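INFO batch 0412 | record 1 of 1 | parsing
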Amino acid sequence: MIPVSLLRRVAILVATAAICCHLTPTEAAGLRKTVLVTDARNPMQVEVLADGRLIYVERGGAVKLWNPATKTSEVVWQRDVEARNNSATPATGGAWEAGLLGLAVDPAFARNAWVYLYYSPRGGKEFHVSRLTLSGSPAKLADEKILLTIPVDLEVCCHYAGGLGFDGHGNLLVATGDNTVGFESDAFAPTDYREGRRLFDSARSAGNANDLRGKILRIHPEPDGSVTIPKGNLFPPGTPGTRPEIYVMGCRNPWRFSVDAKSDTLYFGDVGPDAAAATEARGPAGFDEFNRTRTAGNFGWPFLLADNRPYRQFDFATKQSGPAQDPAKPVNLSPNNTGPKELPPAQPAWMFYPGGPSSRFPQFGSGGRSAAAGPVYHFDSKLASASRLPAEYDRCLFLYEWMRNWIVVVKLDAQGERVEIARFAPELTFKRPTDLKIGADGALYVIEFGSGWENNADAQIVRVEPAE
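INFO prediction complete | emitting tokens
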């Protein structure tokens, strides 16, 4: 255990200095990975049902149900989706990273058996957020009701995000990416306002309050398959030129998030651009972000990044730079913007890190970046489960990196403030962690996407639990 005096000193230093890792690793040394699923093909999200079954989605369009009794998976739903493989050229391959991306089960699943999916149907130019019912023997998903349709441009890549999840009030959150080509802006913000360059302009999507892309949406599913808008979203219903479904805007690719129901806090990772260094003429170097919020907000992209470092509006025709964005009053002057020009104030990132080593957060290492936010663990002393994580992980937020193959834990104090950061189970390997969930048994369930970019023979779903 960490000495209380040391915890206090670390808490004081958090705001001004990099955090040292003091989280005791002895419990992690007693953890093991129990492999459950080995035949998943491009698995994206998983949910752990109360009876121990796993339901998970594959990018190619299959929903599968794993049975702990038989240790086998069965297809319970299959759809032909728009999901071309990643060997296509990114700027021209179309539907690059699209497909069946998101999954959530209803908080009242034991009563209603409702399952929610986020996918791009074949031949369309949109994503569907749908609700289906799991029933029958053998079990199947049926009775689809489309809750929300999100128009996208599938002819070019990328950034579709796609994560689904519920908060503690029964609201469904939907993560959507900026759906913008990021390869022709010198790794800075893609705000190309020239005629015919709409697909290279993230101001049309993430920076547009009248567009559902580059956002985390929040809706409330109703029993009849309709949705209502919860109070507290960023734009109240009826606000001219805005969409009321928006909870968070200004995201590039917030592909994984979680909501801690006990604190009502949304945590999300956002995959950032790749500029190696800042320039006066353009803006900041590239960073990935970990963000947290208890209220609706604008997180800046494509006008600001990290701790509200501003981009200048760059004229891609003349190669001249305009004024820098003001975090307090960001403006969207794109001709492709269909919403208001004046946007809500930008919120700075909670944590952010570059491609190289980070002086603020050395625990994050270096290399490629693909930030993802997982659940907060709350230890339950009354839970009779040999699989539950130890009490030392109580109030720990799990963060993970698809590119860097790590999982870290962020110890939070009673007010939800960051106390320290440490690598989770450093003696274990995690091959491209893609989704993390805490089961009713208190164990951590991890999708390992596998060692390559797609179609990996070593993809699997594992349970991380005490070794004895």
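INFO post-check: The chain has one domain: 4-466.
INFO record closed
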